[in-house]
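User: I'm writing a tutorial on reading structure tokens. Could you give me a worked example: one chain, its sequence, then its tokens, then a sentence or two explaining what the tokens reveal?
Assistant: Sure. Here is the example chain.
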Amino acid sequence: MSARYPRSLLVVCTAVLTLGCTTTVTGNPVASAPGLEESRSPVDADAVLLEQSRMRAITGGGDDLTVIPTMDGTSPVDLDVLADQVPSECAWLFAETQTFGREVADFHKTTYQNPPVGALISQGAAAYEDVTTARGAFDGLVGRVDACGTSTAGYVGEWTTGPDAIRTRTSSECGRDYRLKSVVLVEVTFCAYPPSVPDIVMTNLLERVPG
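And here are its predicted structure tokens:
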């Protein structure tokens, strides 16, 4: 069964998506990955994410760091209104069923904003049934990052990939980090934070992944 968010003004931070700007989109994003209300993964995605108090401490945002309404979800979300406006090899930037694949067994992603300083950051965990499935999702994402990065679109900026890590950075101080550990693919996206902040968030998230 697909989950559906309420229709509202959705603040889509394309900075978090590494495009480096903010767009307000009126729409009804649909979480199209089915069956996530009952986890099929040995790892609970909820347990991987950090508490808001911890995120506030790491970012230094205090009470100014708040969850963006409608951007705290337990199913991957495809923003077709944006994905359709970029080259097909870069559509994954706005289509989480492409980013994380369609074999996700458990999922949670939360995006935070700090309006006084214009900063945003998200933490996400996609858990899979087994290591092989998780590795397949990660390798698929590596291919998508490379395809978008080597295109003329320029959406991912500079990027590096490794056996268990993906890192993208744009000229506008925005970026994405992905790490694979066991059956979990962890994502941190950010804009207007120094490099140490997403690094610390990622380190803390990985410490919560068993194995």
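What the tokens reveal: The two ends are 31 Å apart (CA to CA). DSSP finds six helices and twelve strands in the chain.
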